[in-house]
């Protein structure tokens, strides 16, 4: 199956915004020490046993009791199958559909060159070690597909239109871990930017329609106490920033956690008018590794900025130029550069141990209300935005831990 992602902007480059730099997207690859388990052909899993049981799991982030788990309805997990299995969510009228199961699949990426107004700048990153290598396309203006996270380094790729935007982005890169947590609140009629004062309760007044948003708590390292099921702050390190809000607006009242790592919160009132709230703040990686930002300016100049042990350096970057990764035996280079590209992801069946069991899922898009598909490799999760807040979808061979409210 092919899934195409087309990214459109007002021009070929993306205007610089503060939120572009911040680590608000869930990392899509975890590499040990380099390869992606689920997304690279040379690393797979043992073939599933015919009588093995697989689970699809869904949970609302910030609401530990809102969990759903179902067993895949398969005659045999050793064979591919069309499921069309509906999963109903108690908190949402739109069911999730489990569409297709592949017992051994790999994800293949490619980028098509398209006219400038139909795509975005893209690079093919190649990482090489003594015994293994890995390649991945990065798209400049998509917060999930413009980055790669690993145990040896982190990479991000961005594009700006001119030198002024480049300088603004460089300032943000230098200061990104010291920025003040800020709420961005938008409706069809107004837009509010509110800096959070950590440690104090604050109220934000909404004018049209009238209402208030109260900031109750800010946790730099959000987590749950397993015994009590209550939200706790696990440390002062901003590894999972979250803010608890009390919302009273347009006839709608609720308490809600907003997460920097999982952007995208939208509620519809009785009139159907949306209110969107986003937490914009630094998200520090749990493990300090070299951080690289590759940037394209005016579609012509490529650079690499790096942060190693809190020291920042910058240099021009040519195609095929080898860059050593400090503290490791790995290096990387940019193999290809596409001025305007569209990402195509193809999921393919493979034989042997090269692939992993994978599940195709269909779910309604928050912004368009259209059904969209995504793939979940076994043992992996993906966080998606919905009108009810962020949800984590998982494909697992293990059931969830029993908990109160488990469905």
Describe the structure.
- It is built from 2 helices and 28 strands.
- It folds into 2 domains: 282 residues, no CATH class; 100 residues, no CATH class.
- The N terminus and C terminus are likely disordered.
- It is 4% helix and 48% strand.
- It is globular.
- The strands form 6 sheets. Strands 1, 4, 5, 6, 7, 23, 24, 25 and 26 form a 9-stranded antiparallel beta sheet that branches. The protein has a 5-stranded mixed beta sheet with strand order 8-9-20-21-22, with helices on one face.
- It is mainly beta and 407 residues long.
- The longest helix is centred in the middle third of the chain and has 13 residues.
- Strand 14 and strand 15 form a beta hairpin.
Q: Overall mean pLDDT score? A: 79
Helix content: under 10%
Name the structural class.
Answer: mainly beta
Please indicate the percent range of residues in DSSP E strands (runs of 2 or more).
Answer: over 45%
The number of helical elements comes to 2
Largest sheet: 9 strands, antiparallel
Number of domains: 2
Q: What is the element string, with H for helices and E for strands?
A: EHEEEEEEEEHEEEEEEEEEEEEEEEEEEE
- Total E-strand runs: 28
């Amino acid at each position: 199956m092919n899934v195409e992602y087309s990214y459109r902007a007002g021009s070929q480059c993306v205007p610089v915004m503060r939120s572009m730099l911040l680590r608000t997207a869930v990392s899509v690859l975890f590499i040990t020490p380099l390869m992606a388990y689920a997304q690279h052909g040379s690393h797979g899993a043992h073939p599933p046993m015919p009588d093995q049981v697989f689970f699809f799991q869904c949970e609302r982030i910030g609401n530990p009791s809102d969990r759903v788990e179902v067993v895949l309805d398969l005659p045999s997990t050793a064979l591919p199958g069309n499921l069309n299995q509906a999963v109903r969510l108690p908190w949402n009228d739109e069911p999730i559909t489990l569409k297709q199961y592949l017992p051994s699949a790999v994800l293949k990426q490619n980028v098509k060159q398209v006219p400038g107004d139909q795509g975005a700048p893209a690079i093919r990153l190649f990482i090489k070690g003594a015994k293994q290598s890995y390649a991945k396309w990065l798209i400049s203006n998509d917060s999930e597909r413009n980055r790669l996270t690993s145990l040896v380094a982190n990479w991000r790729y961005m594009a700006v239109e001119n030198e002024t935007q480049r300088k603004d982005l460089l300032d943000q890169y230098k200061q990104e871990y010291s920025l003040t947590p800020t709420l961005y609140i938008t409706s069809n009629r107004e837009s509010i930017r509110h800096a959070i004062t950590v440690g104090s309760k604050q109220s934000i007044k909404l004018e049209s329609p009238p209402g208030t948003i109260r900031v109750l708590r800010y946790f730099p390292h959000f987590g749950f106490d397993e015994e009590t099921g209550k939200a706790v702050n696990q440390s002062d390190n901003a590894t999972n920033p979250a803010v608890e809000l009390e919302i009273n607006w347009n006839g709608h009242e609720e308490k809600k956690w907003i997460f920097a790592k999982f952007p995208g919160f939208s509620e519809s009132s009785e009139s159907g008018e949306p209110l969107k709230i986003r937490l914009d703040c630094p998200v520090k990686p749990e493990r300090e590794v070299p951080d690289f930002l590759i940037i394209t300016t005016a579609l012509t100049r490529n650079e690499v900025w790096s942060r190693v042990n809190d020291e920042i350096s910058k240099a021009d970057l040519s195609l095929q130029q080898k860059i050593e990764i400090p503290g490791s035996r790995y290096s990387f280079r940019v193999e290809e550069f596409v001025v305007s590209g569209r990402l195509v992801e193809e999921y393919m069946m493979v034989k042997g141990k090269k692939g992993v069991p994978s599940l195709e899922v269909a779910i309604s898009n928050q912004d368009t209300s259209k059904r969209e598909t995504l793939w979940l490799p076994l043992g992996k999760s993906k966080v998606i935005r919905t009108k009810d807040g962020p949800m984590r979808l998982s494909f697992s061979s293990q059931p969830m831990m029993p908990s109160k409210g488990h469905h």
